[in-house]
Amino acid sequence: AAVTELRVSPRGGWHLVLDSGLELELGRGRGEIVPRIARFVAAWPKLAAGGVETRYVDLRHANGFAIRSANVKK
After folding, report:
1. pLDDT (0 to 100) of residue 53
2. Cα dihedral sign, 33-48-65-62
3. Cα-to-chain-centroid distance, residue 23
4. Bridge partners, 25 (sequence order)
């Protein structure tokens, strides 16, 4: 997937949107972002195979991540 949007919040948190519409909240701290993305990428095939249409993923958690499916309103 390609990145279509990349934003940095006033507090330094990174947020990106992929061409599929999936939004990833990465948080702050360069040293923490790569392991967070790696953890998500490792889990993504199993999540996608489960049939849940994910639209938003919050990777700011220390030991995991939270997802919001497409059928849940913000």
Report:
1. 82
2. negative
3. 6
4. 15, 58
Identify the residue whose tokens are 């999540």: 47
Q: Which amino acid is at 68?
A: R
User: What pLDDT sits at residue 25?
Assistant: 95
Amino acid identity of 29? Answer: G
Q: Please say whether the beta carbons of 59 and 37 come within 8 A.
A: yes
Percent of the chain topping pLDDT 90 = 50
Would you state the pLDDT for residue 57? 95
Residue 29 structure tokens: 């701290």
Which structure tokens are listed for 64? Answer: 């995991």
**How many other C-beta atoms are found inside a 10 Å radius of the C-beta of residue 36?**
23
Cα dist from 32 to 25, 35, 37, 42, whole Å: 12, 6, 9, 16
For the chain, list residues with pLDDT below 50. Answer: none
